[in-house]
Amino acid sequence: MSPAPRQALLSHIGEFQLIQSIARGFSSRGPRPLVGIGDDAAILSRSSGSHLVISTDLLVEDIHFSRTTASFYDIGYKAAVANLSDIAAMGATPTYILMAIALPSHLKYHDWKELYRGLSVPCKAHGVQLVGGDTSASRSSLFLAITILGQVEPNRGLTRGGAREGELIYVSGSLGNSAAGLACLTHQATQVNTSTLRQPMKFLVSRHLRPTPRIALGRLLSSRGFASSALDLSDGLSGDLRHLCQQSHVGALIREASLPLSPHLVAYAAEMNVDPLLWALHGGEEYELLFTVPPKYQRRLELAVKQLGIPVTAIGVMTPRRSGLRIAHPDGKTQKLLPQSYVHFSD
Amino acid sequence: MSPAPRQALLSHIGEFQLIQSIARGFSSRGPRPLVGIGDDAAILSRSSGSHLVISTDLLVEDIHFSRTTASFYDIGYKAAVANLSDIAAMGATPTYILMAIALPSHLKYHDWKELYRGLSVPCKAHGVQLVGGDTSASRSSLFLAITILGQVEPNRGLTRGGAREGELIYVSGSLGNSAAGLACLTHQATQVNTSTLRQPMKFLVSRHLRPTPRIALGRLLSSRGFASSALDLSDGLSGDLRHLCQQSHVGALIREASLPLSPHLVAYAAEMNVDPLLWALHGGEEYELLFTVPPKYQRRLELAVKQLGIPVTAIGVMTPRRSGLRIAHPDGKTQKLLPQSYVHFSD
Prior knowledge:
2 copies of one chain form a homodimer.
Chain A: H1 15-25, E1 42-44, E2 51-60, H2 72-89, E3 93-104, H3 109-125, E4 129-138, E5 143-152, E6 168-172, H4 177-186, H5 194-209, H6 215-223, E7 229-232, H7 237-248, E8 251-255, H8 263-272, H9 276-282, E9 289-293, H10 298-308, E10 312-319, E11 325-328, E12 334-336
Parallel strand pairs in A: 3-4, 8-11
Antiparallel strand pairs in A: 1-2, 2-5, 3-5, 6-9, 6-10, 7-9, 8-10, 11-12
């Protein structure tokens, strides 16, 4: 990636490049992090015991969430999951969370409470305590800044940089549900056959508003040493797989026919006349894990996830770097998979 | 404090009450923090070694800073100091920092770099590494969410709750400079005798834009066990002393004649026809430490700070809770000291 020109507008520079440029410009005499900027979370060593995992996230109204499709409870809930998911992607156990919020002054106390109530539910489910916060006014929209902490055994943290050629690519759950769920919410007024679609739409909306942080899976992958790399699907498979390839210096080939699609997604897509693959490949906010597994661990992994009741699917294989990121269609033809994930500053 | 009515507007509820209400509503089966919400930072225990100190802060344009009186470099610099100061107030050593920013898309890459360059300078000076970040778009103004980490020896962390009746109240540095510096910046167009005031104004503006995080003092107070409580002056002496009294369940009496005022503040106030005490008592963003010391440690403390070259001043004494917060005027009369610190949501 070439350095950004000094006077370039931020809208012409991707977030990834911005973050890389921070990492280059900032150094210090202090202890180096084991994993720094550019992964789902940083890993900081301690003199003894488990390592500290930390991630921070700023969620902006009408960029990351909208009050037209989500209640305050929903916004809090999903903010917690997005952050728990970053810890899951490192193979770590979440421990503490902090939330700073900037609130438009016309909001009601009840709205604020609902935001925290939503945040608390997934946190409580994973034994995560709220240990810090800061509330200030905003003259414009609602902002949430969340920091989450976790811990992982030394040398067990999963990063985006560990994938090797020949390894299998896995995803948890099924793909595209969150993006389709958002479509359900935004197109509710559209004429659809709602009696047939009631169940599919209910499922998809629930995946959009109540995603599952894959903590148990992340812990399994790291503690048993099954995965060589992992990240969570927040930008969409095509975009997140690209991050994995870039940081691991490899290519990837995924098989279209292997992508796990829920019957609900297929039913809704058919009614809406949309190719469900578009949602599965490019839809964001899945909070499923994308990870790579050396072939020798395949059987042990699949047995272990079966015992835990976590659905995972092998969707492809890591290839040489020069092959880039490709998708094999059912007819055997392959083509370049271009990321269409959400890019900040692009609008 | 009585519970807030369900439908109350947030503008009628102070930040302190909001944060208290979070702490009540949020609990979990996980490990309890040693110090949770309501102090400058949380303290989290570890199984061995030093304890983890963490604080998070959301800085909002035109609430916490303004681009009319501060450059991007200034904003980054001060954001770092505000957070380093929270770690200093706990008696801890800062280690790592994370910054998530939401940027209006019209900002230039250069502005963004300047923000980070400002942030890096006080961090580098204290050996603090940037280990995480997130950059997203904002449709409105500039937001910075900062999380800072530090470490402190077990049972050495300084809180707001440890002050006892009869202890001495100290502040570092001199008071009111930051608020007066802001006045210099906002009233630059005003007719003042600038040749006489050039030096005072330069000093005051520098205290406003380049405050000093009192890390070395905080470390001295905690490692030698001199202080029973501490916090940093971010809301202004009257407001912050009130927080200390509330959390320690004591009252306080400060002596007007003992308040440390810089000659520059006095000179500028005289020219502007302002009582410098108003700035000293109520001006925010000082980032000096306010701390309490048992009388038996007074001599040892004063010797130690002299050796380190850190100016500290005894300004009063902790009193019984029922006495409240009072100020003694030079004529011997005392009166209630009402906080006039900046209250979010009040405008």
